[in-house]
């Protein structure tokens, strides 16, 4: 007689995730991300979300020199064997050809633009980014029109969290950024 086992959830690896895409089970334009072994369907981007992504990218490109950093828009980060998020904007040290073998495994700054995903970005994404020691994580909160800045990863969260309204500024690399510059 065989021994029965309780049902379990399969935790996908990055390799399996890529295999699913190559086999046609996930389309290139499917709004999905691999987070901690789960394939998460993300909601489509509305116009304010797209505008905020463009604004953030423009601001960060002025601060991070292109000869040392990439300011990427919705490109994968390889965070361990079970996660491959695609932050709305990320700042990665290096040049494009530095990543011919694999996606970047770290970022100086990651930014998520949030409306419907606000709670998800404050919990699952923040936990993921903190656990992988990403030094700075921003949430452009479209619901309350504010910028959340998370700094100094500490376990599954960040030791320093500040919230900036549209009429306030945030400091980044000895520069002041008006929160309104990243809000649509």
TrEMBL record:
Keywords: Endonuclease, Hydrolase, Nuclease. InterPro entries: Nuclease_put_TT1808 (IPR012296), Restrct_endonuc-II-like (IPR011335), Uma2 (IPR008538). CDD domains: DUF820-like. Residues 15-173 form the Putative restriction endonuclease domain. SUPFAM superfamilies: Restriction endonuclease-like. GO terms for molecular function: endonuclease activity. This is Uma2 family endonuclease. It comes from Salinibacter ruber.
């Amino acid at each position: 007689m065989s021994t029965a086992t309780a049902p379990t959830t399969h935790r996908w690896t990055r390799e399996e995730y890529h295999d699913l895409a190559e086999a046609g089970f996930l389309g290139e334009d499917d709004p999905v991300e691999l987070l901690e072994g789960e394939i998460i369907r993300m909601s489509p981007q509305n116009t304010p979300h797209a505008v905020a992504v463009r604004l953030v990218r423009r601001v960060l490109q002025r601060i991070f020199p292109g000869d040392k950093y990439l300011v990427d828009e919705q490109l994968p980060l390889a965070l361990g064997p079970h996660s491959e998020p695609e932050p709305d904007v990320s700042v990665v040290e290096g040049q494009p050809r530095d990543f011919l073998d694999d996606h970047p495994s770290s970022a100086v700054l990651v930014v998520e633009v949030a409306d419907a995903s606000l709670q998800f970005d404050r919990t699952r994404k923040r936990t993921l980014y903190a656990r992988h020691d990403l030094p700075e994580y921003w949430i452009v909160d479209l619901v309350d029109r504010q910028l959340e800045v998370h700094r100094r990863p500490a376990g599954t969260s960040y030791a320093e969290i500040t919230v900036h309204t549209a009429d306030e500024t945030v400091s980044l690399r000895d520069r002041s950024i008006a929160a309104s510059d990243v809000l649509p």
